[in-house]
Amino acid sequence: MRATDNLAGGRLTIDRDAIAANWSLLKGLLKPGTTCAATIKADAYGTGATSTAQRLWEAGCTTFFVALPEEGALVRSALPDATVYVLGGLFPGTASDLAGANLIPVLNSVAEVREWAGFCKAESRAFPAALQLNTGMNRLGMDPEEFADVMAQKELTGSFDIALLMTHLACGSDPEHPLNRQQLNTFVAATQPFSTLPRSMANSAGVFLGPDYHFDLARPGISLYGGKALDTAPNIMSPVAMVEARVMQIRNVPKGQTIGYGGAETVTRDSKIALVAAGYADGLHRRAGSSDDRPGGFGVIDGHKVPLIGRVSMDMIALDVTDVPGEAVTRGSFVEMLGPNVAASDLAAYAETIDYEYLTGLGRRYHRRYAALPAPQER
């Protein structure tokens, strides 16, 4: 049974309208004729796959990408008429399951192509599939030579419907990285003979790289959820999630004493410390803690930025609220740990990770609710 707002240590507010607005903004950045899909893998980056998919459908999005067949089946149950691609490909022996759920596998190897073709022949039906090329990321996908060989074998490709040709950018977050143009050139060269088939290259970063990368379909992910797609430009996307954690206790710590496990940080003044009911079990990364050698993350309470002090524990963190007026923070107060005033990319920088990991790692102990997020507070 999910804890109620009163019993949970924190609450997670998700703004579905903000997700839809981000999708509309991205759609507007694409060249005319390019379809804007949505990547909703990992439970829609922690926001709830079915709820997010339904809101995006209402906004006009009809094509979705997930990582795993199980995720696809969940989306299919919510949206019977949507187009759903499975990025993880075809697990051995699962062709009938994907076809039965009307899911489209992204075939990433010659073995997967052969298995899907064999299934379609046995069923005497050309089920759709996408083909992915490895253009330099060296993750999933067929090398250009393998792709050309597959496309030359009509007994394979003629047995199913090729719905999409696609690849994935390795360094799109850095617009100046030479691998972007190399991948683009490789993709164009490999797919040009089949340019009548729909093609896709742009993830969130690819949308911002410009029309050369847009092709027929873009499939943004992190930008939908307010994340930063480019390392070198301001983030223009709206935040879509807010985490607030409850203050459990306020204590006075004299100058010279340490706080938390390992005595990692020593207070340099008489300090007022708030112990807050959220930790790494709730998605607040341990690496974002602070020590005498390095600063850590922060929260915001009543417009005041309050630094994390000491290590992040499993179930709690300590925040230095010495400079916050006494009436603004009391036992039971909520502190914003992620949201309009605390960008996931900022927290990720302290934790030496990326905002993707923060969003997808949000814990299940929060009381989850769907509502509009408040405007950022002036500090």
Class of secondary structure makeup: alpha/beta
Distance between the termini: 38 Å
- Largest beta sheet: strand ordering: 3-4-5-6-7-8-9
Query: Overall mean pLDDT score?
Result: 94
Helicity range of the residues?
25-40%
CATH architecture of the largest domain: Alpha-Beta Barrel
> How large, in whole angstroms, is the Cα Rg?
24 Å
| CATH third-level topology of the largest domain | TIM Barrel
Strand content: 15-25%
Q: Helical stretch count? A: 12
| Main sheet summary | 7 strands, parallel
- Which spans have pLDDT < 50 for at least 5 consecutive residues? none
Q: Which CATH class of the largest domain is shown? A: Alpha Beta
Q: Estimate the global geometry from the Cα principal axes.
A: elongated
Protein model, in words:
- The chain is an alpha/beta fold and 379 residues long.
- The chain has 2 domains: 31-225, Alanine racemase (TIM Barrel); 241-370, Beta Barrel (Lyase, Ornithine Decarboxylase, Chain A, domain 1), CATH 2.40.37.10.
- The chain has 12 helices and 19 strands.
- The chain has helices at 16-29, 41-45, 49-59, 69-78, 95-100, 110-123, 144-152, 154-157, 178-191, 204-209, 344-351, 355-360, and strands at residues 10-14, 35-36, 38-39, 63-66, 83-86, 104-107, 128-132, 161-166, 199-200, 217-218, 241-253, 258-259, 265-266, 271-276, 298-301, 304-307, 317-320, 334-338, 367-370.
- The strands form 5 sheets. The chain has a 7-stranded parallel beta sheet. Strands 1, 11, 14, 17, 18 and 19 form a 6-stranded mixed beta sheet that branches. The protein has a two-stranded parallel ribbon with strand order 2-10.
- A hairpin with a 2-residue loop joins β15 (298-301) and β16.
- α1 packs across α3 and α3 crosses α4.
- The radius of gyration is 24 Å and the shape is elongated.
- The two termini are 38 Å apart.
